[in-house]
Amino acid sequence: MTRLHGAHASALVALVTFWSAAGAAANSTDARPPLPPVSPIAPRPLPLEWVQVPLVFPLVGVSRWSACYNQNRGYYRHSGVDIPAPKMTPIVASMTGRLGFKIYSYWIVGEGQWTGWQVLGTHLNDDTPGTNDGRGGRDFMFAPNLRPGDRVVAGQLIGYVGNSTNATGPHLHFELHGPGGVRNPTPSLRTAQRVSRPVSVVGQAGEPPVPGEVRVDGVPRGYHAGQRVLTVQVVSRRWADGRVMAATRPEQVRLSLPAEVLEELGGVAGLAELARDRVLHLYVPHRNTGAAVVRLAASEYRTKPAAPVQIASTAPVVRPADELRTLVAGSSAPADPAGPPRM
Fold first, then answer.
1. How far apart are CA 77 and CA 66, in angstroms?
2. Rounded to whole angstroms, what are the CA distances from 342 to 145, 172, 196, 199, 291?
3. Which domains occur in the chain, in start order?
């Protein structure tokens, strides 16, 4: 895990301040974002108790990783596990709870069966896909419909793997924190439930499309007034037969807005007021998702309970540190039956 100093740290603070202020201005009623868990930066060993928390594995389709928690890095101990994966591999929420994030990193404060536990991940993607330019922007780092303070459910898309902050290679640095501070995530990751696609929280909510329609759930990214074309970043799609599919990569579509739909949005002035991280349900003809929008609805999914990934175990298990030695010495996790990531 790379740490920033000097000018890099100042730039990070400036970006975090901008993102947080923009989110608060867009919707001042959102919950206050949680503070991130903090790991000690010191050469002394970290806690080694066997802690087994029921989690969803944080990456889609990844199969192998090394148990490198507590590894001596000189002036500090490695506070998590590094999970190698190709750039833009989807990252999903390991537990249900309240989300916080800043540039390159996210954390979740658990609720329900995860109350008292937190996870943190870092090195999210900051590159334009196919490059190492550090100019990828927010939509190549995080899911487009998230805001600090949002509630996320286990299995929901959070963002994408990268090698930001000059990491040695693309990977997710993953930490587990409990009531007593940082804990070894190895046992929990070895038994974590795998998912082949992110949970579609948005797609499960709202009015379904009728036969002949497909519903595109997306957040606004631009509008061409001359052509009356709205560009949206796709979050999910829903079909009339009940199928729902969450996006697993950044994707933009251009949709034509008839006069009556544009008027429903408040005209061009109303479009300018739309928040860039709140979802619209856009209903379009099934055979042509680039055609004119038939009708639309603002998303109401934040007021409705979503279905997280079902996890069999409901209580963390804590055992003495000496029982963890074989896991700490292990080199990899079992193969993932779901296969490679679906990009």
1. 15
2. 20, 17, 8, 14, 26
3. 6-196+318-329 (2.70.70.10), 213-303 (2.40.50.140)
Residue type at position 123: H
Residue type present at position 187: P
Give the pLDDT confidence of 212-251 residue by residue, as tens digits: 999 999 999 999 999 999 999 999 999 999 999 999 999 9
Residue given tokens 């989807």 in the structure block: 90
Q: Residue 331: pLDDT above 70? A: no
Inter-CA distances, 58 with 189, 190, 272, Å: 9, 12, 35
Residue 115 has pLDDT above 90, yes or no: yes
Percent of the chain with pLDDT over 90: 67
